[in-house]
């Protein structure tokens, strides 16, 4: 999945596949996670959020099925 680099103290890049509703988040630590069942509208809000870390903590973390890729 292609990811877009973002400006954040915690998150390096974010990607999304609308067909599978899968969100990928790569953290500055190098960890990479996939979140499934994420609506496209939420991804769009995530990309526009002024604080990616705060948005992630409030709307993504612990709310979707998660798979660690690395």
Could you list some keywords that capture this structure?
5 strands; 36% strand; 5-stranded antiparallel β-sheet; 70 residues; globular; alpha+beta
- State the end-to-end distance: 14 Å
| Count of strand segments | 5
Compute the average pLDDT: 97
* Main beta sheet strand tally, sense and closure: 5 strands, antiparallel
Structural category: alpha+beta
Low-confidence regions:
none
Rg result: 11 Å
Overall number of domains: 1
Instruction: Assign an overall shape.
Output: globular
Order of helices and strands: EEEEHHE
Strand order of the largest sheet: 1-2-3-4-5
Topology, element by element:
Blueprint lengths: L2 E3 L5 E7 L4 E6 L4 E5 L3 H9 L3 H9 L4 E4 L2
Antiparallel strand pairs: 1-2, 2-3, 3-4, 4-5
Describe this structure in words.
The protein is an alpha+beta fold and 70 residues long. The chain is 26% helix and 36% strand. It has one domain (3-68). Helix 1 runs antiparallel to helix 2. The radius of gyration is 11 Å and the shape is globular. The mean pLDDT is 97.
């Amino acid at each position: 999945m292609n990811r877009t680099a973002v400006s954040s103290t915690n998150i390096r890049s974010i990607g999304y596949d609308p067909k599978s509703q899968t969100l990928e988040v790569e953290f500055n630590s190098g960890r990479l996670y996939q979140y499934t069942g994420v609506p496209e509208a939420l991804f769009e809000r995530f990309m526009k959020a002024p604080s990616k870390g705060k948005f992630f903590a409030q709307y993504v973390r612990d709310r979707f099925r998660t798979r660690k890729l690395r």
